[in-house]
Input
Amino acid sequence: MIAVIQRVTEASVTIDHKVKSAIGKGLMILVGIVEDDRPEDIEWLSRKVINMRLFPDSEGVMNRSLADIDGEILVVSQFTLHASTKKGNRPSYIKAAKPDSAIPLYEAFKSQIEKDLGKPIGSGEFGADMKVALVNDGPVTIIIDTKDKK
Output
């Protein structure tokens, strides 16, 4: 599972010209799932995201977590994070999990984040044509791959 985490002042997802979800200060998370991702990857990634110190303290040092600032989260599925660009000019998405296995993992990740954060989160819709808008704060962008835990 790959997550691209962006610290934002605001973010939203629009589907069919209707805003599905919007957040204020917090984290926008794009998540890509592969076939061999497991529930333990979800639990690890959720804890990592919520406890990662990406927000400034009174000294301006990134020393505060999402939980510390009572921030919000917006999660969007993005299979293109697993694009292979080694051959030719057209990316291959063969590594990305198929919907029958990816959707349950995506839903489980959203549920785990809500449980760990202790409040509802915003999300996109798996497989939908989404328009994602955000204001990256910093900019701060972190990429986490659950295959690189050690």
